[in-house]
Design goal:
This protein is an alpha/beta fold and about 170 residues long. The chain has four helices and eleven strands.
Length: about 170
Amino acid sequence: MEYNIARLVNLGEDERGHSLRIGVISDTHAYTLSEVPDPIRKALAEVDLIIHAGDFTERAVLEGLRKLGEVKAVHGNMDSDELKRMLPPKELFLVNGKKIGLTHGWGGPRGIAGRVREMFSDVELIIYGHSHQPANQYIQGSLLFNPGRARDSFGLVTISDEIRAEIIKI
C-alpha cells in the first residue's frame, strides 16, 4: 500500500521543536460535533492534526471537526452510507516521518488489537476504535492506540523523534 503524505508532515519543525500534537478520537456516535463533550472539542481545537478512527455516525461530525483543523479519518461500521462513500476503511500515511496506520476495527473487543495489528506491516503507530475500550500498548514493534469512546475518553499523541501517546479520561 502506498503512503499518503499528510499535509502536516513537517508542520512546526521550527516553531515546536520538531514535535506535532495529534488529537485522536473514535466512536463519537453523534449527529453533530456539539454532542461531543466540551473537553474533547476544546482539546481538538488546539492540536496540529485530528484523527478520527470511525463511527462518526453522521457527516456533520466530520464537517465540524474540519472547522477545527486538519482531519484524517476512516469510516466505521455504524457510519452513514454517505460517510462510507467519502472515507476509506483503512489509511496509511506519514506524519513527521513516522508511518501511521488508521482503521476502525471489527468484531468483538477480545483480540481486536491483534486483528488490527495484522492489517499493517512496517508501521510505528496503529490507531483504531470500535471496541469503545481505550488501549495504549505495543504489539510486534508497533504502538496500538485506541482512544476509547468519545463520550468517555480521547487521545493525545505527540510525534517528534519518538511517539508518545496518552489516554485522557473525561
